[in-house]
Every structure is written in structure tokens, then in C-alpha cells.
Design goal:
single chain, about 70 residues, mainly alpha, 4 helices, about 85% helix, globular, transmembrane helix, transmembrane, membrane, PMP3
């Protein structure tokens, strides 16, 4: 029970840090979340270069979209 609680708290901390990173640098947050240079990173980079807000929204969707898939 204690280890499950610690894992849960760690996940919240990681998510909060990823959200802060996504606000500052959306493509870097996607890269850290995915752990590799994949198409999601390039999409986030392109959207951020075109205009900041779409890149931010996409990064948040990537971060929160994968947290709930098991």
C-alpha cells in the first residue's frame, strides 16, 4: 500500500513538472515525456514555431493523453 501511494505521488509530481516545462518549451516537454525523437516531437516543434499557442495545446494533449491509457 505504501509503495503504491509513493508511485502515485511521484506521478503527480512528474506531471506537474511536465506541465511547467510545456508552458516554457512545449517541444522539450513532449521529448521528455516520450523519451525519444518521434513524430509527436516534430509536430510540437512545428506548431510551436508557427505559433506558440497551438504548440502548447498539443504538448498538453500529449502529456495528459498518455497518462490515462493503460
Amino acid at each position: 500500500m505504501k509503495s503504491a501511494l509513493n508511485d502515485y505521488q511521484g506521478a503527480d509530481t512528474n506531471t506537474i513538472l511536465l506541465v511547467i516545462l510545456a508552458i516554457l518549451l512545449p517541444p522539450v516537454a513532449v521529448l521528455v515525456h516520450q523519451g525519444e525523437l518521434n513524430s509527436k516531437f516534430w509536430i510540437a516543434l512545428l506548431l510551436t514555431l508557427l505559433f506558440y499557442l497551438p504548440g502548447l495545446i498539443y504538448a498538453l494533449l500529449v502529456i495528459f493523453g498518455n497518462n490515462y491509457k493503460k
